């Protein structure tokens, strides 16, 4: 036995995470490139100072005020208002989903998604001793309803994880699929629609939140890390039937949301319009980037998110490295031959375009 005496299935595994490199143009982890205004920063600072007065006490374990604020925020995006008792939150939506697997997965149970998809999903399964099954997506990365239905009937998963838009492809889920999959999963499982990038979806497309009143087994997760421009805040949340929130309470660590996290998240919600103010221009920049890439002859997956998956490259690592050498960091992820670029400011995207043309020209 080698030291440390780690679980054998974890031995030698590299921790998950994209390289964090200090380069001028960072387009690798789908952050919002725009930081908060001076007014938002001042409100956040005041709120933290107020929370600090009682830091000798544990925070509100039920984060009641924050749940109320998040419910009001989500209610803007759905036809039926979301209630505070339908909200759960944690330190990033990664933690929310780990808690979902802790409560609804486990030994003898199965979690299912469709590849290529978010690479943390199998890690939640591994860490909770849940069996992991990955079906496949179509050539264009969409989900075929009949294929999905057949696999669910065969595997009978306790948890189905479906991001919309999907990461790393950007593919949106057809809203009609949600009701159909909730029905086939039935009450022996839950469907988690991961809307980490939901606010970037095309206008006119409903959020999965609209399907909540019809489906007790539906969970919709969101995060403040992406459109909300709060990746450093670490606040993710979900909306679901209150019984699902109660089940998570059993597995959550006590006081998991610090007093400062709650204070900062509430301040961020007060500045929601401003923090989300660049979503429309990021969507435009995304569509322009896709058009430009296609005009250059690249293949690009249709995207409803703040990133684009493009290729195909015989040696994608060489292209990634070439961009990095020119000060542009993107992500080497997705199926072989593809690369993913996050959408930054117009100036950052200009740097990306110039660097990419230069790399391709140099290696031709
Ligand atoms: N879901 C998807 C699809 C993601 O891409 C990410 C982050 N990359 C997350 C969830 C988790 O984000 P966070 O923990 O910052 O909320």
From TrEMBL:
The keyword Transferase applies. Homodimer. Its cofactor is pyridoxal 5'-phosphate. GO terms for biological process: L-histidine biosynthetic process. It comes from the Bacteria. HAMAP family: HisC_aminotrans_2. It catalyses: L-histidinol phosphate + 2-oxoglutarate = 3-(imidazol-4-yl)-2-oxopropyl phosphate + L-glutamate. Keywords: Amino-acid biosynthesis, Aminotransferase, Histidine biosynthesis, Pyridoxal phosphate, Transferase. NCBIfam families: hisC, PRK03317.1. Residues 25-355 form the Aminotransferase class I/classII large domain. This is Histidinol-phosphate aminotransferase. One of its GO terms (molecular function) is histidinol-phosphate transaminase activity. Its EC number is 2.6.1.9. The modification N6-(pyridoxal phosphate)lysine is found at residue 226. It holds the Pfam family Aminotran_1_2.
């Amino acid at each position: 036995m080698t030291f440390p005496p780690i679980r054998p299935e974890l031995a030698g595994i590299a921790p998950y995470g994209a390289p964090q490199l200090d380069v001028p143009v960072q387009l690798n982890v789908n952050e919002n490139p725009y930081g908060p205004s001076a007014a938002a920063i001042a409100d956040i600072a005041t709120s933290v100072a107020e929370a600090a007065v009682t830091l000798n006490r544990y925070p509100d374990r039920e984060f009641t005020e924050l749940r109320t604020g998040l419910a009001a925020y989500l209610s803007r995006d759905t036809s039926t208002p979301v209630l505070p008792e339908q909200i759960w939150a944690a330190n990033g939506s990664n933690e929310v989903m780990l808690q979902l697997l802790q409560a609804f997965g486990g030994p003898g149970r199965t979690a299912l998604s469709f590849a290529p998809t978010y690479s943390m999903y199998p890690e939640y399964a591994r860490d909770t001793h849940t069996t992991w099954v990955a079906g496949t997506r179509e050539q264009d990365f969409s989900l075929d309803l009949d294929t999905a239905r057949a696999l669910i009937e065969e595997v009978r998963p306790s948890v189905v994880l479906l991001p919309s838009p999907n990461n790393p492809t950007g593919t949106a889920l057809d809203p009609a699929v949600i009701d159909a999959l909730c029905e086939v999963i039935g009450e022996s499982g839950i469907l988690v629609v991961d809307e980490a990038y939901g606010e970037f979806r095309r206008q006119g497309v409903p959020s999965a939140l609209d399907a909540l009143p019809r489906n007790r087994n539906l969970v919709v997760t969101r995060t403040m890390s992406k459109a909300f421009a709060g990746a450093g805040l670490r606040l993710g949340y979900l909306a679901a039937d209150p019984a699902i929130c109660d089940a998570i309470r059993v597995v959550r660590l006590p006081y998991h949301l610090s007093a400062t996290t709650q204070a900062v998240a509430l301040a961020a919600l007060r500045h929601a319009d401003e923090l989300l103010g660049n979503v429309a221009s990021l969507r435009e920049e995304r569509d322009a980037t896709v058009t430009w890439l296609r005009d250059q002859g690249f293949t690009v997956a249709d995207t409803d998110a703040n990133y684009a998956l493009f290729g195909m490259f015989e040696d994608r690592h060489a292209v990634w490295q070439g961009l990095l050498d020119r000060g542009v960091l993107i992500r080497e992820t997705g199926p072989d031959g593809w690369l993913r670029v996050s959408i930054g400011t117009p100036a950052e995207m200009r740097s990306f375009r110039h660097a990419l043309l230069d790399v391709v020209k140099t290696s031709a």
